[in-house]
Amino acid sequence: MFTPTFTSLRRAALVLALSACTSLASAASVFQIELDTSSLVAANGPSGWIDLQFNPGNSGTPYAQALLTNFFGFGDAANAVTAGNVSGSLASGYVIGNNDASGYNDLFHGVNFGGKVGFTVTFSGDLDPSLSGLGSAFGVSLFDNSGTVALGTAAANGALVVLNWTSLGSAVATPLVNQIGTSVSAVPEPHTWLMLGAGLALLGGVARRRRQHG
């Protein structure tokens, strides 16, 4: 007599869990970025620069911003040079908007070589109702202590990481080939974890009831 109930509960649990997994695998708006600088010390010394840019595709791109937090491996807060729509600090987090009239928004900050350098970036902003494909690109590069020589990649633009904020309100990574270890991982948002947890809990409840009434 319990078979229909178990079947319904099992289906509901699977739907919740699968929906959460789909969300985890889809484009996201929060990313953890890590760069392994251990191989850069011998040729470049103990310090250098990280260049973080968030620039629009063109003048018609909807407004968006990138919030940078959870820094590690960054140097003294005084070693920061900004251009365009950039505000904040290491302590409070930096915000880079994509809407400066120059079309160029840049944070150039000192970092320590020899270990991991990283941060969390959270994208937000207006969607593109026409879905025209206009977006903004968030780029990450490393430079030597002089601030003139790009490190860790042979790419012409010097980028180690490129994340594209899309018209749908999510960000997707552009695959790049780098000479240093680079990690870009999507950070699931709270509602995704809640959905996954609810699905797993429901599956556990179904299993317990089957044992009790089996």
Description:
The protein is α+β, with helices and mostly antiparallel strands. The chain folds into two domains: 1-26 and 190-214; 29-187, no CATH class. The protein has helices spanning 3-25, 41-44, 190-213; strands spanning 30-36, 47-56, 64-72, 80-83, 86-89, 93-97, 106-112, 116-125, 136-143, 150-151, 161-165, 171-173, 182-186. The strands form two sheets. Strands 2, 4, 7, 9, 10, 11 and 12 form a seven-stranded antiparallel beta sheet that branches. Strands 5-6-3-8-1-13 form a six-stranded antiparallel beta sheet, with no helix packed on it. A hairpin with a 3-residue loop joins strand 5 (86-89) and strand 6. Helix 1 runs antiparallel to helix 3 (190-213). The longest helix is centred in the last third of the chain and has 24 residues, at 190-213. The N and C termini lie close together (11 Å). The model is unreliable at 12-27 and 191-196 (pLDDT under 50).
Sequence-ordered SSE layout with sheet pairings:
Blueprint: H1 3-25, E1 30-36, H2 41-44, E2 47-56, E3 64-72, E4 80-83, E5 86-89, E6 93-97, E7 106-112, E8 116-125, E9 136-143, E10 150-151, E11 161-165, E12 171-173, E13 182-186, H3 190-213
Helix pairs in contact: 1-3
Keywords: Signal
Domain Ice-binding protein C-terminal: 186-211
Protein name: PEP-CTERM motif protein
